[in-house]
Amino acid sequence: MTTTETPSERPERSVPKPVFTDAEAGAREFPDSGASARRYNYFAPAKRKQTHYEDVTVEVQPDPRHYLTQGWIYGFANGETGYPLHWTKLKAWGVDEPEPQRGIGTGGLPVENWPAHGWHEFRDPNEEWEQSLYRYNANVVRQLTQNVENARNAKAFTMWSPNWVRFVERHVGAWMHIEHILGLYVFASNERSAPTNMHNTALAANSTRKIRFAQDLALYNLTLTEEIEGFDGTAHLDAWNSDAEWQGARKVTEALTAIENDWGEAVFAANIVFEPLIGELFRSNLVMQSAAPNGDFVTPTVMGAGEYDFAQRDLRWTIACFGPLVQDREFADHNRQLMSGWLAKWVPQALEAARTMQPLWSAVDHKPPRFEDSLDRVKNRFAGICSDLGLDTPEELKL
Amino acid sequence: MSRQSLAKAHQKIQELAWEPQYHEPYMKYGTDYTFRKSAKKDPLKQVLRSYFPMEEEKDNRVYGAQDGAIRGNMFRQVQERWLEWQKLFLSIIPLPEISAARSMPMLFHVVPNPELHNGQAIQMIDEVRHSTIQQNLKRLYMNNYIDPAGFNNSLRNFQSDYCGTIGRQFAEGFITGDAITAASIYLTIVAETAFTNTLFVAMPAEAAANGDYLLPTVFHSVQSDESRHISNGYATLLMALSDEDNRQLLERDLRYAWWNNHRVVDAAIGTFIEYGTKDRRKDRESYAEMWRRWIYDDYYRSYLVPLEKYGLTIPHDLIEESWKQIWEKGYVHEVAQFFATGWLANYWRIDAMTDEDFEWFEYKYPGWYDRYGKWWENYSRLATPNGHNAIVAEDVDYVYPHRCWTCMVPCLVREDMVMAEVDGQWRTYCHEVCRWTDVEAFRPTYQGRETPNMGQLVGHREWETLYHGWNWADVVKDMGFVRDDGKTMTAQPHLDLDPKKMWTLDHMRRMPPLQSPNVLLNEMSDDQRQAFHADYVRQGPAGRPAPTDA
């Protein structure tokens, strides 16, 4: 005979009980229940249909000219509040219109014709928000890790000539400092300053890519220290601090961090002038051209990731930011003159720094294209960027 | 990461530290704190090569859960009472998050420690993540929840609504004024270390109990970043403590930051957790119990008190006073009652408390019914339009409160209200500490010491001022809290979506005009003002008029 044991009764646990509430879309009809009510309706999209990027970005940073009826509630000691429009000398249409003057019994005076001024028309063509930002950068670091790992397994570094090893440890290594300084002390440093959330988020994303690339180079340098006998992992510091070839670029890089109270000039000088004339000169026209003849197929993949960052993302949003200002319906002349002034100020510094780097073109066994040819290429590229922006190519480019 | 250990990789990236050789960086932001170049380590030890894939994976989990929630018809089980309060919460929170991102450069400018800048930069990216992931969650609610009104005009609403303005302190306070006061003490030492526990841990648990498992999905993912930010603040705090001259400022800023966070966060999150829930199990924690655990024990006793040995003056008195406000003076209940009184100036629906709610409140807060029960019964009686006005204009034994100039939550614990004439204007404050904040702390000198970088409290801080003398229908229309038929209000004092039971602008039109308490206060003679104050502090609890027989 078999017996069945009665299982001991489990004491009832205290847990929330599911309740059928029927609170899903479409369950009832009432004012605002229709499909047309299911979109953010407080801004005008750039195109016919608002994008996901716009939904998560636009209007998060308030503007007293829009709906901020009680105004900013904290001020700096000098009386400035929020995100002052004069934190750049650039102007977008409508900025000289006075802010609504609110007070006793005035009502909220909400914006009637959004966006009230031209700054709010900017959209980052890269549509950076968390998903795009993490997907992009995670893909880059995954690919880089695999590239370097593959080279390590294939013992690819043994094919490098001694001169190339010295070049990579000193000069490719030195470049990490420029990316780091630009990332932290130019782009991140200015992401509190611009007038809209779209600008500041683009600045933060640009900063992120720069800081990542700086770390990519540093960690690549660490791998090489582990993999190549005699590779000096600290030589980049000596090059950065002492090599004459680097002092020009360093001086300009540091000057970019010292731009006073103008986020517009900082971004313009970094992405429109410095990057094409110095960044692409070094990355594309020296390192990436020299590596293969010197037995190195790995370094171009690391450098290439940074190059793609700039060419396909950093420059892209920068053109979208500054281009419309040159055509601004109210301040086109003002902005064109201002940007021309910035070109006159920064192009000579960049060219002088570029020329200081010239000896690097002779530092390796298998030489890259001539320095002057490389410089001509970046000058042409730079002239094209000026043209894309609607700016005249500066006279200083002939220097 | 490949074979390189995280510690080794982190050590390597320290070689990126920059000592300017030709140009000093422009220092846009200032502080009255001084820092020796004492080398504190970056506590995050985060390297972007591992950070990005980690965050991407976290994102994938969040978005996978969101797909699952939609496919599984989560909104058939979501409590409307809960989701309605999310219209307020999710309109506020993306701005504090993005403001936290914006505050990081302020720290680069004033904290002379390149190693810490790395952690701050990563926090900047995290905060961009948080702001946009929260905007996206709200978008999902708007698309899938029965009533999109309030979500769909969320950021306009938030910027023009008085509750939004209260919440905005938890954003502008991070990015304005003295860089250390704002971005370090107010943001990381107090807001993130103490109050994100209730915001991002306690509140999501309540969401889950109300059928919403997306809020926990998103906010626990967010909180897993916050815990790293806490380390950022701690390192900066230790640097500040190493300089004796900073002690006075630290004491000032901890008092301000603690009290303001208590006033703002406890008001909002306390209301969401206690009045936004349908989970009335007696053994679920009340907000007071959560506060005791998360804030009093975990933050105050475990984090703050040990810092005393490093010379930090802890505001013990304010922590005890905050607890007293919550436990004895009914702070959260008073705030929830006020939110419901002013339902018509909001953009979400607030339903009445029921017998089941009453029982729970009485169990958790003995004496609750005697204080608040009758008023909530009146709220229920006046919920659907039936020839009467909205509750704010009906006689329900409730005196409309004055607003605190500093924290902008009304002066609801009436006995604590104080007044001061500041910059030619009479102002009311909900508590002596709020008066101190405005009159003494946010000034260019503090206790005789020059504090030229300290910020200021500015703006039209009393919302009613803007609409003084306006008809309520025009107020609601001006703020844009109207549905797509052009007359039905976004806000309602009940959850019934039957159009016949919903309040419209026509119902508002017949109400008496809105009056600004502060404008009226400033029109009084000195004697009238003193009499007003004497009466005010005898009012309450639950907003009751002062007794006439005293």
Which structural class matches the secondary elements of chain B? Answer: mainly alpha
Give the overall shape of chain A.
globular
State which percent range the strand residues of chain A make up: under 5%
Order of helices and strands of chain B: HHHHHHHHHHHHHHHEEHEEEHHHHH
Query: Which chain pair has the greatest contact?
Result: A-B, 117 and 130 residues
Which range best describes the helical content of chain A: under 10%, 10-25%, 25-40%, 40-55%, 55-70% or over 70%? 40-55%
Average residue pLDDT of chain A: 96
**Helix and strand run of chain A:** HEHHHHHHHHH
The chain-level structural class of chain A is mainly alpha
Number of E strands of chain A = 1
Low confidence ranges of chain A: none
What's the Cα radius of gyration of chain B?
Answer: 24 Å
Contiguous runs where pLDDT drops below 50 for at least 5 residues of chain B: none
Number of helices of chain B: 21
Outline of this structure?
Chain A: It is an enzyme of class 1 (oxidoreductase). Chain A: This is propane 2-monooxygenase. The complex is a heterodimer of chains A (about 400) and B (about 550). With about 400 residues, chain A is mostly helical.
Question: What would you note in describing this structure?
Answer:
The complex is a heterodimer of chains A (399) and B (550). Chain A is an all-alpha fold and 399 residues long. Chain A has ten helices and one strand, in the order αβααααααααα. The longest helix of chain A has 31 residues. Chain A starts with 51 loop residues before the first helix and ends in a 10-residue tail after the last helix. Chain B is mainly alpha-helical and 550 residues long. A two-stranded antiparallel ribbon of chain B has the order 1-2. A two-stranded antiparallel sheet of chain B has the order 3-4. In chain B, β3 and β4 form a beta hairpin. Chain B starts with 5 loop residues before the first helix and ends in a 14-residue tail after the last helix. β1 of chain A pairs antiparallel with β5 of chain B.
